[in-house]
Amino acid sequence: MKKRDILIVLLLIFVSITNTYADVREDYVPKGGARLMVQIDGNDTVLLAFIHDIYVFPRQKFKNKAQEQFFWRTVRDVKKTLPFAKLVSSEMTQTNIKLAKLNNDKQRKEYLNKFEKEVFKKYEPDLKKMTINQGKMLLKLIDRECDQSSYELIKIYRGNFTAFFWQGVAKVFGTNLKDSYDGSDKDKLTERIILLVEAGQL
Asked: Does the pLDDT of residue 89 top 90, yes or no?
């Protein structure tokens, strides 16, 4: 065994032993600060804290007032719709778990009908307050969070005909349920805003 390999093994053993005897507590609150974890190792005390990722982008430059207004409208729309898109993703996961436990298509259809009514009753008032642009943004972000377009989701849960019907309705309002989210190209600005919003930087 090479000396370097032996040193690495000894170092790993030392770290594991040190961590075993380190006392980690969560009861330290610095004056005027937030609650932190504390790791006490012999006479050494280390404060532990989790921080958000910090994103650094080139400074946003606007060619004109209209472009600046568009940027801040996009910020507003992301902040308004992102929580709903994340909610859809979470609800979809829970729904899939529930559907997998049901025995047949009849039970699944009954469950989806009941679930749909409950969701509309709960969220319809908030959705009605959204502008058309916010509705379009919501569809984009649903695709981002679920990795599936709204059209695909409707098709999976409600069938081809229903998806086709709602696609027609969406086109009346100037949008397309089949549009996919592309954070590296056409939705690059939106992706940047989402990252900054999620990190609490915007």
From this structure: no
3-class SS at 45?
strand
Cα separations (Å) of 127 from 107, 117, 169? Answer: 28, 14, 16
Residue 44, beta-bridge partner list: 41
| Cα 154 from Cα 164, distance rounded (Å) | 9
- Contact between 130 and 138 under an 8 Å Cβ cutoff? The reply is yes
- pLDDT score for 194: 93
Beta bridge partners of 24: 39
What predicted TM-score, i.e. pTM, was given to this entire model? Answer: 0.67
DSSP string, 140-173: HHHHHHHSS-HHHHHHHHH-HHHHHHHHHHHHHT
Residues 183, 64: contact at Cβ < 8 Å? no
